[in-house]
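Why should sequence recovery work at all? Because a backbone constrains its sequence more than one might expect. Tight turns favour small or flexible residues, buried strands favour hydrophobic ones, and helices have their own preferences. The token representation captures these environments compactly. In the example below, the structure is given first.
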């Protein structure tokens, strides 16, 4: 008698609640990705390097000395870590509480209700409720479900796909997005000054009020029976200019700092902020886009609310600003649109390659100086010399192909 094949649930939440004791093989990460994964609650208590906490209370102080001290601390964190906890950020605890309740309430709905908002990654529609699909990057799945949608500017909202339950979801999320946008302006001004530029320069370079998109991704990480074998989000750097993250005070964020994975402690009333690739490129590497990942646990559900501040896909060419380039420090990055940058990164997803990708342009001066070239051998130059020649050839080929599958993958990458 042939036993019936039971299909794997399409949502990680359903899989987690099915009573399994071992996770399916497609969720088991390669051994080299599992370094540094232990009990996340114990990891959080460890000593060692700590993600900086930046107090923004004096970011606009009329006292020059006090204001300058705040600006210098922010600049230092952006250069050394590329990630920080922001406190006294000006967004009320009441509003943040509403955002968390709204998102948490949506994910408390039965899966069947959430499916009404399902996206369709195969057609390039990434907005809505979804789960990671295996792609040619790693063939692996991540232990998370999510809800992804554009939250700013308002004229780019598609409220038809925003959750109707709870009723406060739309007003709370909309107001939070507006306040994050204002906070982004302040941060970009400080970082501009930190590069010796006029304060509005970086904001202009990433699209300004009209074209800078804010995309929200609510990440839902169910309890995992084998957290030592899985990842909620695999190692990556954010492609955004800035990323702002709330979470439900369950640890899970790890940063690759000074050659080791460091678990971020949970800081009450803070917003985590990442410097993304876009600012790393514009600053010619002076600001750091740090490699990071999300780990899971078997005791508590973790939820995070990430807002990615992204430049327009094709309107702007991202490259080091002339003021950041000198003879001693030539351009480290080739000119690309935001869409081209995402395509370049698309097939570099595991720890080994993501780390190599993060360093790929440290020695790329020869190619970068020739900015008029198409950089067809970009991937072979630095990363290929060091450790990833075979995979880099696939990357270079994939970058220059124009196919429907590439477009679908790029759309899926945008929801990372």
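From this structural description, the recovered sequence reads:
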């Amino acid at each position: 008698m042939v036993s019936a094949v039971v299909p794997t649930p399409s949502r990680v939440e359903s899989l987690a609640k099915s009573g399994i004791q071992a996770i399916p093989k497609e969720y088991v990460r390669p051994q080299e990705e599992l370094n540094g994964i232990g009990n996340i609650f114990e990891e959080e208590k460890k000593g060692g390097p700590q993600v900086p906490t930046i107090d923004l209370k004096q970011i606009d102080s009329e006292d020059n000395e006090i204001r300058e001290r705040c600006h210098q601390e922010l600049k230092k964190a952006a250069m050394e870590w590329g990630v920080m906890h922001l406190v006294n950020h000006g967004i009320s605890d009441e509003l943040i509480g509403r955002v968390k309740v709204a998102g948490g309430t949506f994910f408390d709905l039965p899966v069947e209700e959430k499916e009404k908002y399902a996206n369709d990654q195969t057609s390039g529609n990434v907005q809505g409720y979804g789960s990671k699909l295996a792609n040619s990057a790693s063939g692996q799945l991540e232990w998370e479900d999510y809800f992804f949608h554009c939250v700013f500017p308002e004229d780019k909202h598609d409220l038809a796909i925003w959750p109707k339950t709870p009723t406060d979801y739309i007003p709370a999320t909309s107001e939070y997005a507006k306040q994050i946008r204002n906070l982004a302006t302040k941060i970009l001004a400080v970082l501009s000054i930190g590069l010796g530029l006029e304060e509005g320069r970086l904001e202009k370079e990433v699209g300004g009020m009209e074209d800078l998109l804010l995309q929200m991704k609510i990440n839902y990480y169910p309890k995992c029976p084998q957290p030592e074998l899985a990842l909620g989000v695999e190692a990556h750097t954010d492609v955004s200019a800035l990323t702002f993250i709330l979470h439900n005070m369950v640890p899970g964020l790890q940063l690759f700092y000074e050659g080791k994975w460091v678990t971020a402690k949970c800081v009450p009333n803070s917003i985590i902020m990442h410097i993304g690739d876009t600012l790393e490129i514009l600053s010619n590497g002076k600001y750091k886009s740090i490699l990071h990942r999300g780990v899971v646990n078997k005791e508590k559900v973790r939820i995070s609310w990430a807002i990615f501040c992204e430049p327009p896909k094709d309107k702007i060419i991202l490259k080091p600003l002339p003021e950041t380039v000198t003879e001693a420090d030539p351009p480290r990055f080739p000119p690309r649109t935001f869409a081209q940058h995402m395509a370049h990164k698309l097939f570099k997803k595991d720890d080994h390659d993501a780390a190599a990708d993060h360093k790929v342009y440290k020695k790329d001066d020869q190619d970068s100086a020739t900015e008029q070239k198409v950089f067809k051998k970009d991937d072979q130059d630095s990363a290929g010399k060091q450790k990833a020649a075979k995979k880099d050839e696939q990357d270079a080929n994939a970058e220059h192909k124009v196919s429907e599958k590439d477009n679908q993958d790029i759309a899926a990458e945008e929801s990372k």
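A few observations help interpret the result. Residues 1-8, 348-412 have pLDDT under 50 and may be disordered.
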